[in-house]
C-alpha cells in the first residue's frame, strides 16, 4: 500500500538517508525509547563503512545493546575496531562518564600533582557519579573528542531516549551557565574569602555546614575547589566548542520512531522541543513496519490443496495485516506532516533480532 503523503511533503520529494554519510561528519539518532535507535545507529555505521567511510558508532546507553547488535563481547570508553567491513573501517564506543571526566581533569590540570589531588578527592568522586547532568555533559565531551580524532570521517551517535536526550543536548549550555554563575565565580576567585575562613561570617557558615555533613567533608570540599582553581576556563572553552559542533551544517539529527500512535506522539513532542533548541531534523527513520504481502495471481493448485477452512483463515490473516499496515501508514503520514523532513527511511519488520554485521548490513540497505 502506498503511503498517503500530504501535498506539502509531496512537493519536496523525500530522499533516503544515503547522502548523509557523504555530507555529514556527525549523525545523531534521537527519538523515543524502544524504537530501535541503537540498531539503526549501528546499521548506518556499518552501511557507511561498507561504502568506504571510516566510521565510529557511539552509544550512551550503558546496556550491551550495541555490542550485541555488532556481535562482539565488549565495548568500552576507547574506540574498539570491529572486524574489517567493506572498503572502510568501523569502530565502536560505549561511553564511560567517569573515565571521560578523569581524562578532562588530567588534560586541564597544571601538574600531575594537581590532577592526582582532584582525582583522589571524595567530593570530586561523588560529583562525577551523582551530580545531575555530568553523564550528559561527558557524553558530549566524548563526542567532541572523537570528532577531532583523525581516524574517523563519520560519527554515528545513539542518543538516550527522548526523555533524557534533551539533557544530553543541552549539557554544554548548562555547563557554561554554571561556570559563568556569579556564585561560582565568587568561589573560584583567586584567594576566595569563603575558602579562607578568617572572618566571623565565614567561620559561622562553615561551622553550620560542618554540623550537618561533618568537618571532614567540608575540608575536602574546600580542598576540591582550591585544586580546581584555574581549570574552569578549559572546561568552559571546551563546552563552547561542543555547543558549536552541534549546530554545524555537517551535524545532522535523524528522528527514529515506530509507526504506532504512542511513539509517533512522543516523537512529535520531541521534534518540537528539538526545534526550540535550534536543531532541525534531517530525516526520519520509521522502524518495524508490517511488510506488504503480494495479493496478485494465486496458484490454482495451491488453492485446491487448501481446505476451505484454511483458505479462509489465511485470507482473514492477510486482511488483518493490510489493516495494520494501513494504520501504520496513517501514523507515518502524521509524522511527515508535522515534521516535514527532507529524508525518510522506512524499515520493515525483520525476521529476527539484530545480532551480527550481516544483519546490520541487511538493515542498512533499507536505511541508506
The CATH homologous superfamily name equals P-loop containing nucleotide triphosphate hydrolases
Identify the CATH architecture: 3-Layer(aba) Sandwich
The whole-number mean of residue pLDDT values reads 80
Per CATH, the class reads Alpha Beta
Lateral strand order in the biggest sheet: 3-4-2-5-1-6-7-8
Secondary structure tally, helices: 17
Please provide a brief summary of the model.
The chain is α/β, with parallel strands linked by helices and 368 residues long. The chain has 17 helices and eight strands.
Task: Describe the structure in your own words.
With 368 residues, this protein is of the alpha/beta class. The chain has one domain: P-loop containing nucleotide triphosphate hydrolases (Rossmann fold, 3-Layer(aba) Sandwich). Helices cover 55% and strands 11% of the residues. It has 17 helices and 8 strands. An 8-stranded mixed sheet has the order 3-4-2-5-1-6-7-8, sandwiched between helices. Helix 5 packs antiparallel against helix 6. It is elongated and about 85 Å long.
What topology emerges from the helices and strands here?
Elements: H1 7-10, H2 20-23, E1 26-30, H3 37-50, E2 55-59, H4 65-70, E3 80-81, E4 90-94, H5 97-108, H6 112-119, H7 122-130, H8 134-147, E5 154-158, H9 162-179, H10 182-188, H11 200-213, H12 215-228, H13 232-246, E6 251-257, H14 261-276, E7 283-289, H15 300-305, H16 308-339, E8 344-348, H17 357-367
Parallel strand pairs: 1-5, 1-6, 2-4, 2-5, 6-7, 7-8
Antiparallel strand pairs: 3-4
Helix pairs in contact: 3-17, 5-6, 5-8, 6-12, 8-9, 8-13, 9-13, 11-12, 14-16
Amino acid at each position: 500500500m502506498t503511503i498517503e503523503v500530504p501535498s506539502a511533503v509531496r512537493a519536496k520529494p523525500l530522499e533516503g538517508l544515503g547522502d548523509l554519510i557523504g555530507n555529514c561528519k556527525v549523525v545523531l539518532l534521537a527519538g523515543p525509547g524502544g524504537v530501535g535507535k541503537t540498531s539503526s545507529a549501528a546499521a548506518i555505521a556499518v552501511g557507511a563503512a561498507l561504502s568506504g567511510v571510516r566510521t565510529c558508532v557511539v552509544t550512551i546507553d550503558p546496556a550491551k545493546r550495541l555490542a550485541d547488535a555488532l556481535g562482539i563481547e565488549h565495548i568500552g570508553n576507547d574506540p574498539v575496531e570491529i572486524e574489517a567491513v567493506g572498503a572502510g573501517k568501523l569502530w565502536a564506543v560505549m561511553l564511560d562518564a567517569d573515565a571521560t571526566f578523569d581524562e578532562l581533569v588530567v588534560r586541564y590540570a597544571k601538574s600531575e600533582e594537581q590532577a592526582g589531588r582532584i582525582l583522589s578527592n571524595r567530593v570530586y568522586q561523588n560529583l562525577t557519579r551523582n551530580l545531575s547532568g555530568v553523564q550528559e555533559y561527558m557524553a558530549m565531551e566524548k563526542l567532541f573528542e572523537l570528532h577531532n580524532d583523525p581516524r574517523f570521517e563519520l560519527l554515528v551517535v545513539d542518543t538516550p531516549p527522548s526523555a533524557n536526550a534533551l539533557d544530553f543536548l543541552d549539557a554544554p549550555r548548562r555547563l557554561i551557565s554554571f561556570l559563568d554563575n556569579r556564585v561560582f565565580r565568587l568561589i573560584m576567585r583567586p584567594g576566595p574569602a569563603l575558602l579562607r575562613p578568617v572572618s566571623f561570617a565565614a567561620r559561622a557558615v562553615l561551622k553550620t555546614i560542618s554540623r550537618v555533613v561533618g568537618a571532614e567533608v567540608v575540608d575536602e570540599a574546600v580542598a576540591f575547589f582550591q585544586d580546581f582553581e584555574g581549570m574552569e576556563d578549559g572546561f568552559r572553552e571546551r563546552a563552547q566548542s561542543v555547543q558549536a559542533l552541534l549546530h554545524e551544517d555537517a551535524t545532522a539529527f535523524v528522528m527514529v520512531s515506530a509507526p504506532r500512535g504512542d511513539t509517533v506522539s512522543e516523537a512529535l513532542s520531541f521534534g518540537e522541543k528539538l526545534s526550540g533548541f535550534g536543531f532541525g531534523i534531517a530525516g526520519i527513520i520509521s522502524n518495524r513496519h508490517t511488510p506488504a504481502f503480494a495479493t496478485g495471481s494465486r496458484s490454482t493448485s495451491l488453492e485446491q490443496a487448501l481446505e476451505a477452512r484454511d483458505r479462509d483463515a489465511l485470507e482473514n490473516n492477510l486482511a488483518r495485516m493490510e489493516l495494520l499496515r494501513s494504520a501504520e501508514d496513517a501514523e507515518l503520514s502524521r509524522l511527515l506532516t508535522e515534521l516535514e523532513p527532507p529524508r525518510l527511511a522506512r524499515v520493515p519488520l525483520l525476521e529476527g533480532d539484530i545480532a551480527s554485521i550481516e544483519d546490520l548490513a541487511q538493515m542498512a540497505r533499507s536505511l541508506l
